[in-house]
Design brief:
The protein is built from 12 helices and 11 strands. Helix 10 packs across helix 11.
Length: about 325
C-alpha cells in the first residue's frame, strides 16, 4: 500500500507539498500539482481521511512534548513516534520543555491554537490541569511514560512495579545481597512504582532493605557525588539497580573513577534499554519496554480520540548483558 512519502519521492517533492496539492490549501504551481497527481495515479495512492479533514480546518499534525530531548530514552521514543505517525501520513510537532512547567504550558497553548489532531506528552510533573483543559477544546491527548492515578484513562501504562521486582529477583539469583537503587523524583509516578517493586522483592527474598543504600530524588546536579559517597562506604553495594539508563551511565563513570570493576565488583542494571546501553563497556543489562508498541498505541489513541477500553499495562523484558556477567 503506497504512502504519502512514496508519492512525494516519485513526484520529487516534499510530503508537505503533496498535502497541499491534495488539500487545495497553500500556494503550489500547476506543474507541481500535476506531477503530484500523476504520482498519485501511478501509485494508486488512496489518501486517508486527513485530506478531507484539512478542508474542515483540522491539520494533519500531532504535537509531541518531551521533557528532555537529550535523554536517550526520550530521543528514541520521539523518533519512533515520528516514524509511526509518518506511516499514517501524519506530521509531528516536536516540543522540548526542558523540564520547565511554564514552557510546557506555553507549548500546550501554541499547539491547541494550531488546530492539531492531538497531543502526545511526557509531562514534567504531576501538575497536569493544563492538559485536562484540552477536553473542553475536544483535542485528544495521551500521557506516555507517566501514570496519574486520577487520570488513568489518558495514560499509556507500563508495568513498572513488576519490572523492578523481576530485576531484583534476577540480581538475587546472581547471589548479590547488598543491592542498591537510584531513583529520580517521585513526582514522576513511574519511579515510585519501580522503587516499590524493588523494595517488595528485597523483602520477599529475605534481603535486608538498607535505606542507606537507596538514593532518592536523584537530580543531575549532585547525582555523581551521591553515587561516589555510596561506593566509598565500608559496606558498599555489590549490585545496583538504576531506575533509568541515564543514571546507570553516571554509575559507570563513578565506578571507573573509584577503580571498581563491572560486573566483578558491582553488577549494574538500568531501565529503558536505550541505544547507548549496547555502546558502553561493559554493555549494560537493562529492562526494555517495547517503544514501537508504545509509539503505535499513542498515535492510534490520538486518531481514535481516546485510549482503548482495554488499556492494559505494557510489559517489557530484561535484556541481559555483560554488566551482570551475561
Amino acid at each position: 500500500m503506497s504512502t504519502i512519502k512514496d508519492v512525494a519521492r516519485l513526484a520529487n517533492v516534499s510530503t508537505c507539498t503533496v498535502s497541499r496539492a491534495l488539500s487545495g490549501k497553500g500556494y503550489i504551481s500547476e506543474n507541481t500539482k500535476k506531477s503530484v497527481l500523476l504520482a498519485v495515479e501511478e501509485l494508486n495512492y488512496q489518501p486517508n481521511s486527513i485530506a478531507t479533514e484539512l478542508k474542515a480546518g483540522v491539520s494533519n499534525a500531532i504535537g509531541l512534548i518531551v521533557p528532555d530531548i537529550t535523554n536517550y530514552y526520550y530521543m528514541e521514543l520521539a523518533s519512533q513516534i515520528e516514524k509511526t505517525a509518518n506511516e499514517m501520513d501524519l506530521l509531528i510537532y516536536l516540543c522540548n520543555s526542558n523540564y520547565d512547567r511554564n514552557k510546557e504550558k506555553e507549548f500546550v497553548t501554541e499547539l491547541s491554537n494550531r488546530k492539531i489532531r492531538g497531543i502526545i506528552v511526557i509531562p514534567v510533573s504531576n501538575e497536569i490541569n493544563h492538559f485536562l483543559e484540552l477536553q473542553k477544546k475536544n483535542i485528544p491527548f495521551v500521557f506516555v511514560n507517566r501514570a496519574f492515578s486520577e487520570s488513568m484513562e489518558f495514560c499509556i501504562v507500563e508495568n513498572n512495579y513488576n519490572a523492578a521486582y523481576e530485576i531484583v529477583e534476577y540480581l538475587q539469583s546472581k547471589r548479590r545481597k547488598k543491592i542498591s537503587g537510584i531513583f529520580q523524583c517521585f513526582d514522576n509516578m513511574i519511579y515510585r512504582e519501580r522503587y516499590e517493586g524493588m523494595k517488595q522483592a528485597l523483602f520477599d527474598h529475605g534481603i535486608y532493605v538498607d535505606d542507606s543504600l537507596i538514593i532518592l530524588n536523584a537530580e543531575k546536579e549532585n547525582t555523581s557525588q551521591r553515587i561516589e559517597a555510596l561506593f566509598k562506604k565500608p559496606d558498599w553495594p555489590d549490585a545496583i539497580f538504576t531506575s533509568n539508563d541515564m543514571l546507570a551511565f553516571d554509575v559507570y563513570q563513578v565506578l571507573y573513577k573509584l577503580d571498581k570493576k563491572i560486573p566483578e565488583d558491582v553488577m549494574v542494571i538500568g531501565f529503558d534499554d536505550t541505544l547507548m546501553a549496547q555502546k558502553v563497556y561493559p554493555p549494560l543489562t537493562s529492562y526494555r519496554m517495547p517503544i514501537d508498541i508504545i509509539a503505535k498505541k499513542s498515535v492510534e489513541s490520538i486518531l481514535q480520540g481516546c485510549l482503548s477500553s482495554r488499556n492494559l499495562p505494557i510489559i517489557g523484558r530484561l535484556i541481559k548483558r555483560r554488566s551482570t556477567g551475561d
